[in-house]
Amino acid sequence: MRAMKQRGGATTSGFTLVEVMVTILITSMLMVAITQILDAARLTRDSIHNMQETQLAGPAILDRIEADLRGLSFFNREPAEAIRVRNRIVHGLDGDSLDFATTSNSLLWTKGKERALRSDLSEVGYRLRPNPDDNDFLEIFRRESFGVDDEPFEGGNFTFLHDRVRAFDIQVFDEDGVDAEPEEEWGGDAEFNGMPRRIEIELMLELSPRLTRERLPGVLNNQRTVTYRRIIRFPQMFFVAQRVQPLPVIPDIQPPSPDAVPGAGPDALDGGDGGDGTGGVDLGSALEGGLGGGSGGGGGTTPDFPGFGGG
After folding, report:
1. What pLDDT, in 10s, does the model give residues 190-242?
2. First to last CA, the chain
3. Boundary residue ending a domain (243, 272, 301)
4. pTM greater than 0.70 (yes/no)
5. N or C: the chain end with fewer CB closer than 10 Å?
6. Backbone φ, ψ for residue 157 (5° rounding)
């Protein structure tokens, strides 16, 4: 109710103190409601961003590792240098390392004399180090070296992959089966080397704030980490390729000569009587009948050399 008061013949009007307090109270409630809605929208946006980023980063890293492992190279390599896995603990967290040579195309370009080059055979590794901004996490990098040198597990250039890694655990198995026990280390100076039967990789990532000062108070601690697992089994051809090493040689190609054909006389390549058409398997007769083009051929063919019959 408006209060009206007449003073000196003039009439004034205004709000009472109760009306002002009620108005302020209603406005404050509206502002609080709007602020809560905006805060909930921001938290939902950050949660979706973090989950999407982590869900894309984890499988992408494991896909890259599997693609590199599928291209393992064994040419001119000792069994101890085929693949190396080291069990490492970095700042109390699992930070295993993985190194090998692969035939997958290199991701980094190397400057040549006239143009940039990419290698079809390169050294690849995955290493972790402490996060310089937060000791609670590790950073994972992909190591790549152009070609393969005498030290296949060292050197190269490093590409950053992720900075909030909680664990990177690699288990290597000499046998494939449910009851198989993993080996601590593989390759190099380890007891086991060569090709393992399977590799199991566990990668644990933690959701990161969208901005540096933002946090996720509504997310529980066990919901901030996402664990990805990948089991990689190697085909049998890898084990065969490791045992059978091809030797590159330059072929010695000689011109053909009549003496190199069993059963063929000096005139075998110059022409003959055309064969007797009996379909014999003698190479000399086949050459005489097919290449000679004589008139006495009876249309005979051989099962090993079709089309060599008489004319």
Report:
1. 889 989 999 999 999 987 665 444 555 555 455 578 899 999 999 998 888 88
2. 125
3. 243
4. no
5. N
6. -110, 150
